[in-house]
Amino acid sequence: MDIFFQQLVNGLTIGSIFALVALGYTMVYGIMKLINFAHGDLVAMASFVGLTVYDQFLGKTTNSILAVIIIFAVTGTIIAMAGIVLERVAYRPLRKAPRLSAVVSALGASLVIQNGIMLIWGPRMRFFPADILPAITWNIGGVYISFIQVVILVISLLIMVGLIFFIDKTRVGAAIRATSIDHDASRLMGIDVNGIITLIFVIGTFLGAVGGLFIGLYYRGINFNMGWNYGLYAFVAAIIGGIGNIPGAMVGGMLLGIFKAFIAGYVSSTWADAFTFTLLIAILVVKPTGIMGERVAEKV
Amino acid sequence: MNKVFRLFFALLFCLALSGTQADASETIKIGVQAPTTGQYANEGQGIDQGVRLIAEQVNAKGGILGRQIEIFTCDDEGTAMKAAICAKDLVNKDVIAVIGSYTSTCAEAAQATYYREGILQTTDGTSDALTEHGYWTFFRNSFPNSAEATYTANYFINVKKYKKIAIVSDFSSYSTGLGDSVIGEIKKLGGNIVYQGKIKAGEQNYTPVLTNIKSTHPDVIYFSGYYNEAGLLRSQQMQLGVMADFYGSNACDNPDYIKLAGKYAEGSYLINVPSPELLPYDLAINFLKDYKAKYKMDPPSIWTLLNIDGMRAILHAIEETGTTDTKKLAEYLHTLKDYPGITGPIEWAPDGNRVGSAHQTYEYQADGSKKVIYPIVK
Fold first, then answer.
1. What residue ranges are annotated as transmembrane (chain B) (predicted)?
2. Residue B19, pLDDT score
3. pLDDT in tens, B3-47
4. Domain extents in chain B
5. Which of A122, B144, B158, B328 has its CA 20 to 30 A from that of A90?
6. Distance set, CA A298 to CA A31, A33, A45, A245, A280 (Å)
């Protein structure tokens, strides 16, 4: 039984990261009906920026908690700005264009960012130092949970709950919901649609940046082309949960993480990806709107 | 008209004859096929620099058979396609022997061309497939995967007496080949393999596989892959509380392994041929000194030195036989017994495999250095 719970913990950790990245996908899709394929590469970029911030400014700090908070704040800000630039340059000029143009633009942006990372930081793997966070591991009845896993789980949950509160309970959240239903009607009601879209990109890329930093802190080794993989899994998670739906992205991310862990654990790690995409197809066939899809408002 | 042709061919024949007669003053041409750019650039540059150093030393002493050595380098970038092009290129340069390449893939892509042209080839590729074609031109200067497998199995079963062994590979041909080889050897010795599985290189989350391994309570986890995955496996193994010894194969021997495994690198193990600085031979000490004096750095790894040994053996054969006829050179190389190499005595089996096994087991220390805990076995 401890094996089962261990796989569950493994799955939840990686699932939290998927969920954080998937939120960026789902929010952008919800408001613009656009799959932002460059999102995964912004996540990878966040890992590299975070490592540089650490190397440049915090390498000698002894207070690791403060260091981590500063890394997250600085990196999140830089990546959020990159998200704004991405929207301005690659998506805004195409907003009235056919949807395929925007998708091609997204794929192009993805390649530009990936190659940019390679040019700046090089094609070799880079490493987060091992001693940023304390390497503590707890043994709870045979199930091992490390400090970094707890950090990832708790922070991800706090962020997601905060995000749901923000969308559901605030005036800006109401504006975001309105914009996702109808841009023109929202504009007539006095909502600054461009401002809302920019805000969505800021929030989405910031969450992705947090995910990217978690990847760096958890696995330490980061690669210029890792964004594609995480982007793909997050995209699958968003679809499983119902794309455009914020709680759906969280549930989808967690489910995907756990599903992958169980398949890899109980069937074969070789087949984990094949099963993942079979699951995706099955969900699309049985319930095309995703698990929590019924809450998506349809454009009339 | 016919007469003119005859005269023409007669003239050509005379020219060809004069060509062979002028041979004594010509250079002996040796090719280097190595990845001097790309992913393995530092290894490829090491091989090129090492070969050129040896040629320079020999030329300074008046060359071999009164002839100077000339080196031609072709960069195969570590890809099979470029390797095939390099093979053609070096053939056109009229080399009699080629040193390289660094990867098994590149050596294999080029070896048929060298065989057809009767050009000697010596490489550090460890893939067993390299010697399966039976090319008389081919000489492996490193040790094949099967030799490492024999060493590893013997060490696990007879020395460490492990009762439960878990074996993990990735999907590369090197890793799969070595992993299967180790499994076969362990089974031959009656060892008990409780887990064997594969991971996908590049996927960073190996906790599901490790959790499965944990449920089999192994004494040891052996990974026959590359350093990036090894570092993550080791670090995640310890975080999951899988208290087994961890062994990496020769491709895990890289400073990046320590960066990924972090503090958990300490106390993990590695099986590889000797590190250059640990070679116990005067030849090695002198060569390393010369290399450092000329290039202001150490050779990147043992693979450079293995290739240098291939080069030295071929030069030795030319000197002893007094000819550059590759057929005769190959015959002579096959009869070599205990030729003193930088990396130990050299002897070749009829299929071109290097005989013996110079593998060692290292333990990583807290400061990241390696300590030999089980010595050379011949």
1. none
2. 46
3. 666 656 665 555 555 544 445 568 999 999 999 887 677 789 999
4. 22-143+278-333, 146-272+360-374
5. A122
6. 12, 11, 34, 12, 22
Cβ contacts of B263 on chain A, cutoff 8 Å: 130, 135
Tokens representing residue B196 in the block: 């064997």
Q: Domain B22-143+278-333 is of which CATH architecture?
A: 3-Layer(aba) Sandwich (3.40)
Q: How far is B367 from chain A (nearest CA, A)?
A: 14
Please check whether the domain covering B146-272+360-374 is classified as CATH 3.40.50.2300.
Answer: yes
Contact A219 B205 (CB under 8 A): yes
Domains of chain A listed by start with CATH number: 1-134+149-286 (1.10.3470)
User: Same CATH fold, B146-272+360-374 and B22-143+278-333?
Assistant: yes
Asked if A269 and B228 come within 8 Å (Cβ–Cβ), the reply is no
Chain B residues inside the 8 Å CB shell of A10: 205, 207-208, 211
Distance, in Å, from the CA atom of A134 to the CA atom of A147, rounded to the nearest integer, reads 7
Note whether B208 contacts A260, CB cutoff 8 Å.
Answer: yes
Taking CA atoms, what residue in A is nearest to B237?
A: A144
In chain A, residues with a C-beta closer than 8 Å to the C-beta of B255 are none
pLDDT for the residue B20 = 47
- Residue pLDDT, tens place only, B168-201: 998 877 788 899 999 999 999 999 999 999 998 8
CA atoms of B235 and B299, how far apart (whole Å): 29
In this prediction, residues A125-151 reach a mean pLDDT of 86
Whole-model pTM: value is 0.79
H or E, element range at B270: strand B269-272
